Give the backbone structure.
Amino acid sequence: MRARVVAALLVTPLAALALTTPAAQAYPDPKLTITKVELNKSSVAVSSLNTVPVKLTVTGGYNSTDPQDANLTLHAFLRRTAGTGMANLLISTELVRKTGDTQHGTWEGNVNVPSTANGTLEVSGVMTGAYTSIDTGDMTTETPAPNPPKLTVIGTNQPKITARVLPDPVPFGQGYSIRWSVINAQTAKPYGTRLKVWLADDNGCVENFGGPAVLTDTNGYLTKSYPASASDYGNCLLLPGDPAPVGGTNVHVNHPGIVSATPSKTSAPVGAIVPVNGTVAGAPTGCPVNLQRLYGATAWRNVGTAKVRQASGKFVLNAQPAYKGNIPYRVSFPACANFKAGVSKAFTIRGT
């Protein structure tokens, strides 16, 4: 669909929404016809953070006599079919008509190929206008390219991006910093120059790319401080490209697993159900919590499980005293999503 993310750096809330919201059907523009797509090279070698332009020519037409479409432009998509690299999809620059008219013409432009596209890519389709990373809600999807040409990319000295979050995990309500690093994956050494990168948060990681670039140091490091509020979203480093990033890494910082649990009764007849109410800080929706009972002196074993409720972070587990006397319990929260593991304080239910 038009303006959908090309870097595939998905923000968690959007991913969760996609699980519950039916996807609307998208269709190619019925006015756009593509008869041929050509690349002026079948293979290209690219090193480091350089890009190599490959000329792309589209022959086709747009069924419109509207004067506003007289200077119609196009853009094309190339998707990975083989190999491995950080960039699985490339987008051409704006394709400008060189011959003919809007109804029957030839459009030309470039695909700026990075080393991160290492492998084989194929022209998968074409859309009208210049590419925009902003999701406009337009449900038009790309028009497939007939007999799509392939491009083999030999990418060397590709970048490797890492992120170190401090502190880790990040306490709730506290700011943090991320030390980003961009180095040569092939040599495991810095490129030796200051590198331009984009830093973004939340939707800025998946749309509306661009803005002022910032520079790493000559060792490829860049440290940024973030407010506590930024921990609720993804933070990313993107490698600038034209018209979209050629790679990047998205980080969702870790939080501690802070669990509290209280039994509704401190004593109950053997075999009776005793609800245990609790919360997990940060409300990691859908994550499991386990009620554990102490066996012997040190062995905690699961005797029940539940899931954290949406928004509230609350949960309810059921304890059931198995014998007369004091029985130690606790609630365990296993590591889930970006939350570390944690356990509640132990509590006792007396079986009577």
